[in-house]
Queue: 2 jobs
Job 1
Amino acid sequence: MSSLFLFSIISKYVYSCIFAPMNLEDIKTVKKLLSTPQKIVIVPHKNPDGDAIGSTVALWHYLKNIGQDATVVSPNDFPDFLKWIPGNESILNFEKENSQSKNKISEATLIFTLDFNHLSRIGQMQDYLNNVVAEFIMIDHHQAPADYAKITYSDVSMSSTCEMVYNFMEYLNDTDKITPEIATCIYTGIMTDTGSFKFKSTTSRTHRVIADLIDKGAQNTEIHHQIYDTNNSSRLKLLGIALNNMVILEDYNTAYITLTQEELNSCNYKKGDTEGFVNYGLTLKGIKFAVIFIENSEEGIIKISFRSVGDFSVNQFARNHFEGGGHDNAAGGKSDLTITETTERFTKLLENYKTDLI
């Protein structure tokens, strides 16, 4: 048994002993908090994806529907392919609507943080949230959560934070309050974070939740169309460049893609255009580890996405070498080197993991 696989098993065991679904005491605390008027801010992570937007907007709908004053404040903008989600127009962008966002945060009596578990994941908002007096509630499914929340609902076995928001409403005996808008938001996040229900985090429970969401008004075909079937010519051109840049390392059952800032600019890159590109490597027979390296000249870093199949933990790989983390089969990281230096370093690191990958 490889050391990386053994570490992953031990980590999951230790984690499961510490963090579990919401306990009765936490549920009572949440019910008490929500039984009185609150000024609530809901925060996703920086560069929010389908699960982050779906979960925060779903929770926003729910809290508004039970009479609470709630606002979603995102650290920055989110991809165009998510801007059809019902309620997305209400989201405040901390970067572009800074004063209004700060006012909402300073007035907040309760802050929900969704789909992340460390305040470093919210960029410039971190310093501001570090100084608020509001209580925090965390809902998240990533590993190694920080200890900043009054209530921490953390469960790495969950397919998505959106599935946890459904559970959260169930704990409060409020699934009857799931409207078609809420169902649509939750369905979207589960679908995107499970790779259209193909990742191993998709359980029979996940499918039962999805069935209930459809019964409550989620139009599954339309949601899929909005997310996956609305390509523009620039994005398809960028996908062609990405696939042309793919490097296959057969000795390590690994494939990686690079995209430079120049290549992004040539295709009029917009946030979210590279969503899903990293998964193409895993469609190749025998490939267990897929990576995409994307140059971001504005931040001066290389953004990295890691994906794997089987027992190879990209979460641990990202934590060990690229200041990142996430899930066992899906994680992210970054590099301060050039894109060439980063890929060279990555390739050299693979020698240490050869037994895990063959």
Job 2
Amino acid sequence: MRPFRMSSPLRIALISEHASPLAALGGIDSGGQNVYVAQVARALAARGHEVDVLTRRDAAQLPAAVDVCPGVRVLHVDAGPPVVLAKERLLPHMAEFGSRALQLFRHSVPYDVVHANFFMSALVGLRLRAVLSVPLVVTFHALGLVRREHQGDADGFPPERIAIERRVVHEADRIVAECPQDRDDLVRAYGAEATRLSTVPCGVDLHEFKPGARAQARRALGLPDHEFIVLQLGRMVPRKGVDNAIEAMAHLGNGRPARLLVVGGNSADPDDGQTPEIDRLRRLAQRCGVASRVTFVGQRQRGALRNFYLAADVFVSTPWYEPFGITPLEAMACGTPVVGSDVGGIRYTVADGVTGYLVPPRAPALLAQRLEQLRDNPALAAAMGRAGVHRVRTRFTWDRVATDLLGVYRGAALRCAPSLAARSFHLSGVPLAAQLGARA
């Protein structure tokens, strides 16, 4: 392990096996983790550090390396067939991912720290830590036991996930929790040591998301001025609770005409075949009698998202559970009040009664009451929007996240014992059960 000097530029490897920073957002496996990895890499590079992002090659034509900006490269790692695979099917390919990553690491200037994102990347990270004696930091982004508590049999991940997460919690040098609830879950469900946990939230790019003219944004999107527009934006999967927003539309009382915009999906057009969740939600809107007031937009690139946030009177995010949730912060940065679930990271970022409201995750009638309050009191909505801008700018910037992560990396380096350099284990070709039982 190289001496770790915070005053010198660091070489940092971010591992994100399924969530590439180059991927379009809104698809089944494209969301907050993609944004997190991309923005953390950029923020660290802006401070003079060199960052490589290792992600799985999911298309044959992808180049080996893509220069994203000065100091940031995306490296495509061969692991399994070069096609899009659901993240629930990727675990069997992680041994190959680890072997390819080791080859890359051995033929490059040594990295100072590995920051693994998600449990499968963390499994790869444990191997790199053992073989190369590099400090390992892990951000889970979601926890298998918590996911099972909320999704039950709908959780499609293999059961080995829990054992991997438990091992990572006890062997990684530092674990990053994204909010107080995430930290509590790591201690409660996994027995994590508090001394190796650091709470570092996600952030917002203030150049990308900032206040602007609502009327101008609506004109750009072809939206009428007279409607009260509710926006829901993100991945199209059941746990995101879009059905809650649709049912709330049916509970809205008389007043200014309201419309729900739903942005996200696996294609630019809201295709039911490519995004089955849209088909389910369309049928729900018909049953609720609000199909004419719910517009499915489809997937949009990041450059188009600000206009949607600006055009909306209120942003809604009511998932069943949420480890963090970046979209509420983006909405707040644009000056749009947020009504969100009183869970996880949303509870941490949305100041109830100040920047918006918190509601139970499956309570459409209560959600509708909060929407009516904002619809019927534009001055209140505007004040909450201004408060949201202030809260984001003072607490949730990527620059601040980078500062905090650099402190975490230093703590990881101090814990990573030099004796690790003489210890190694090779998982390629070893059955998964043996991999989970292996100890560096």
